[in-house]
Design goal:
With 467 residues, this protein is of the alpha+beta class. It has 15 helices and ten strands. The strands form two sheets. The chain has a five-stranded antiparallel sheet with strand order 1-2-4-5-3, with helices on both faces. A five-stranded antiparallel sheet has the order 6-7-9-10-8, with helices on both faces. Strand 9 and strand 10 form a beta hairpin. It is elongated. 24% of the residues are buried.
Amino acid sequence: MKGRFDESTAMLDHLLGVGRSFDMTRRSLCIGGRRAVLWVINGYAEDGLLERAISAWRETGPLEEELTLQAFLDRYVTVCDAAVEEDLQKAVTAVFSGKSLLVLEGLPGGILLDAKQFPLRGVEEPNSSKVLRGSHDGFVESLMTNAALLRRRIRDPALILERLVVGGRSRTDVALCYMEGEADPAVVDTLRQKLQAIDVGSVAMSQESISEAIVPRQWYNPFPKVRYTERPDMATASVMEGSVLLMVDNSPAVMVLPVSLFQFAEEVNDYYFPPLVGSYLRLVRVLVLLLTIFITPLWYLLVKDPGRLHTDLHFLLIQDEYFVPLIVQLLLVELIVDILKLASLNTPDTLGNSFSMLGALILGDFAVQSRWLVPEVLVYMAFVAIANFTQHSFELGYACKLCRMALLVLIWLLDWWGFGLGVLGVVVLLATNRPLVGKGYLYPLIPWDGKKLWALLHRRPIHKNNT
């Protein structure tokens, strides 16, 4: 018995990296006259809870010879979340997930104690989706905290939070969240099967790694197949309407499925205003989405050949002299806007205002004076750059940007024929985009569901029986 205990603890020391990893703590104990060993990762440990448990074990009298591990758990373990685990690999994975492992001499297997406390930031409102009214909390990097934020708003036994583990080496916790009776069972089953079939070593980029592992392969289609949110109130509304949430540990972004193009027109601020105002904001968002794709290509198409422009539209013509072709100017400004975005990500907050002034003065004023750019190009591109921020989905904004640049190139090559082919190409991309699950990317337009389409295009009043 003694040799078997020494052998099993030595194997666990090796698998857990005791002596190799500074954060892996091994504590030798004596419980009821028997030797015991406790393993815990130092950064995860909730010291107060473990100290109380160890103090109770030290006062334990002699243990009976016929005592089982389950009986010891029932009598002497005060930690609420504790369970017997006989599988060695599962026990090791649980320790790396934050649990504490207790092994007793003479008893096969071990006891897993959930006495962890993850390091995490405070529950704060996400920077990318603020509201004027309503709650100002947001999801964080802890899966349990995110589940609690959701459960706080939906106190219904029909809310199911199903836990899965993905990633061969990272063993990342993932949760499927849905309302039983509201969510489509076929959608839930499909998502579950796709998650269980993921064959990747690590989920290093959290939700993006999982999304790329399960979405249909369409590298040429830029339109997003997944919707994200960091707001618990929006996630709650989506679940109550029958959507399925996919939560990933270590990520504050929650995936909302299934998704269609029209759902990107919805935004949480719509529901914190009266129905008429919310409907107006939603229609503005749809109009701006169309303008971001077509306004600069249409303007370039009209001024490309000034001789055929109607006299009523002569105000669109460029008055100043320029030396750089318009197509080069438009594509160059598209590139400069992305450079400024990337640079702002790495700019310290204290230098942000100075950086904005330098960008406006040097890249704007100097470019116009040197005849590299004309003011009209800057005006249209400034509108497009600002209009992109009306969409809460960054992925949809970049999809519109790529379509806009493709339209400009096609107009430069084929004139009006290029514009027609470009519009047709955008429609084909939307129609053939394959979402992860659901009825289609253009649903409820294709297949037609007039009631659902009307509900998506206008803000409905919240009645007693309306979720």
